[in-house]
From TrEMBL:
This is LmbE family N-acetylglucosaminyl deacetylase. It holds the Pfam family PIG-L. GO terms for biological process: glycoside metabolic process. GO terms for molecular function: hydrolase activity, acting on carbon-nitrogen (but not peptide) bonds, in linear amides. InterPro entries: GlcNAc_PI_deacetylase-related (IPR003737), LmbE-like_dom_sf (IPR024078).
Amino acid sequence: MRRVLAVMAHPDDVDFGAAGTIALWTAQGVEVTYLMVTDGDAGGSDDGVSREEMAALRRDEQRAAAKAVGVTDVRFLGRPDGRLEAALDLRRDIARVIRQVRPDRVVTHSPERNYRVIYPSHPDHRAVGAAALDAVYPDARNPYAFPELREEGLEAWTTSEVWLSGGPVVDHRVDVTEVFDRKVAALRAHVSQIAQMDDLEGMLRGFLGAIAQEGGLPEGRLAEGFQVVSTV
């Protein structure tokens, strides 16, 4: 594995779901690219900040968070926060980035609703997960899908697997105990979103500790969980 593309709905989604895993990958020399479908303009709770200002702020926060885990390539599609649908134009735009980056692995949201923990099942998350899966298969690998991409010089590309975050199924866990501090640092970069959280680190330890425990990891270990889908 040489390249990974993380396709997420909002700034901070990748950091809550996968920043520890990504920190491990970049430490191993893997090239990781972030694609944020929105700028998170509907986030936050400060009426004194315009939505345009919030979008710019959240882009800057995501770039800072990415640096905390070794990622420098951060891209935004600028779609409206809270109004995403897994439509053809979104599939095309994600397929375009897949063909540009040519990743071996894509990390994205699960398109399935999680009834155990509702927060990962934001409608934008599920829409992006569905669109990203369709972009991986069949769109990005089919040279005749979206012919305008070939006209841009982007040839078909086959991604081997997709890692889904936040869904009801977890069949793979990554021990992130040793890079937990980097995950916390990434999330602390999202000041506009986490400033009101009294105990961010404690919340994360509880959540990641439960994932580790469910996977049979030793007591005290912390893990991020995914559903791994082979796409070849």
